[in-house]
Amino acid sequence: MLKQFLSKFPRKSSKSDAVDFAGGISGNNVIASVNGIQRSNSGGAVTGRSNSIKRSSAVFPASVVAGIEPLLSFKDVPSPERQNLFVSKLNLCCVVFDFNDPNKDTVEKDLKHQTLIELVEFAASGSAKFTEPAIAVICKMCTVNLFRVFPPNYRSNSSGAEIDDEEPMFDPAWSHLQIVYDLLLRFVTSSSLDPKVAKKYINHSFILKLLDLFDSEDPRERDCLKTIMHRIYGKFMVHRPFIRKAVSNIFYRFVFETERHNGIAELLEVFGSVISGFALPLKEEHKMFLWRVLIPLHKPKAMGVYLQQLSYCLTQFIEKEPKLTITVIKGLLKYWPVTNSQKEVMFLSELEEVLEATNRAEFQKIMIPLFRRIGSCLNSPHFQVAERALVLWNNDHIVGLIANNQQVILPIIYPALEKNIRSHWSQAVLNLTVNVRKMFSEMDDELILVCQGKYEEEEAKQMAAAEKRRLTWKRLETVACMQPVAGNTAVLITPTATAITC
Fold first, then answer.
1. What phi and psi values does residue 33 have, to the nearest 5 degrees?
2. Is Cytoplasm there in the keyword field (predicted)?
3. Does residue 473 fall inside a structural domain?
């Protein structure tokens, strides 16, 4: 009951303005009596004689001003007292309930839900003044309601594989948490909030706990956190280096220790906006963030969950400073998957986005090792990898880069194209390879003939070397068969020697 709900606060008695809550609750209606007037949360008023109402001590937070009851509506008190009522309602919402049991404390939960809605509406109206006491109470209320320890994620397997196909987990307390997040967002974005005062309460500890919430399994909560953290980063300039460092530590722990975190995509989305706002020239700190934090995020198996956000961050760096193209492509080649075909397809997709943002000068510095890797992808026995590599030639910008450097690129990948045409099992890969070869032929037919001649010459050399090895082994086998067996001398056992006579 509500009496139990309010009993969690320090008691403060008032002889003239006390209310008996024990008999004032019916269903979801909360009836408060002030100066002889009974008001319900539906806005109705019932007059009565104050002397005939049996009163008892009302229970309110210690910080509530005498005569201001937190259950009153804002429109029922004079304007000068609304700020005090705002603080009183915030204190009232500092009580946390167990939402795992929907039948427990239903009346109190409804009361808190209604109070939170009133707080959000009051903050949205612009009437709320975020003085230092109000800031302290808001941060306290958010701390009590939002900051919590999540249970272990038993759904995640030890391999850290992607869990895209699994249904997301929804927090049963979201109906209340959503309103608290809405209030926090309006508080942070309010023009009346002075960052110099608020930074004492929205401090490093508060930010760290807010970042910890990104590991929530509820996607709705992570989406709210993403917006709030972006606003905090924008408003509190003094905290920006700390936020970047704290997020970097989350990424380090994810990549090199756990490979488990639910909010990597949302954190990267926040940093996508942050990177786009970096001033030029880029600081060395930001370049180190690219190499030490973003590039290693290609290592985990669950990269597909945040691939889109990661690619956006990389392309933002390249657009800011084109010279970083070499850093990005070298990072991709460093972490290129060897045995994971699905991940290799993702790398090729990301590589296409990176190349779209690459200029000719930077492309020429990295094209040789890059197309060696692409050439090996063209010959992949996994048809999706080979097909995705061939689709790169459908991009006009990439074709333009290749056309300007075909004298270097074609000799590197021509053997892979020829092998596909001769022996690849997939008809789709075969057709795409023929189209790519035709494209090169249209660019420079003489170069194709030169590459074909070199390929046939190299193939003849390899066949001659293979025949030479075969003859050498045959001679060794003949010599070994003629040697007598003595002691522990190793001998070559021919198929005829393995026959067992019964």
1. -115, 120
2. yes
3. yes
What token pair was written down for 320?
Answer: 């800011």
CB 401 within 8 A of CB 360: yes
Asked whether the whole model's pTM tops 0.85, one would answer: no
Ranges under pLDDT 50 in the chain: 1-5, 8-67, 154-164, 501-502
Q: CA 3 to CA 198: how far, in whole Å?
A: 34
**Structural tokens at position 474:** 């045959």
pLDDT tens for each residue of 248-286: 999 999 999 988 999 999 999 999 999 988 988 999 999
Residue 299 belongs to some domain of the structure: no
pLDDT at residue 127, rounded to an integer:
78
The alpha carbon dihedral of 129, 132, 137, 142 has a sign of: positive
Would you tell me how many other CB atoms lie within 10 Å of the CB of residue 464?
10
Query: Is there a domain that residue 459 lies in?
Result: yes
Taking the C-alpha atoms of residue 183 and residue 128, their distance in angstroms, rounded to an integer, is: 12
Q: Which of 386, 377, 394, 313 is nearest to 350 (CA)?
A: 313
Please tell me the distance from the alpha carbon of residue 233 to that of residue 214, in angstroms, as a whole number.
15
Residue 14 zone, left/alpha/beta (φ > 0; ψ -120 to 50; rest): beta
What's the domain count of the chain? 1
Q: Which backbone phi and psi does 46 adopt, to 5 degrees?
A: -125, 125
Sign of CA dihedral 208, 214, 217, 222: positive
Q: Is residue 443 part of a domain?
A: yes
3-state SS assignment for residue 499: coil
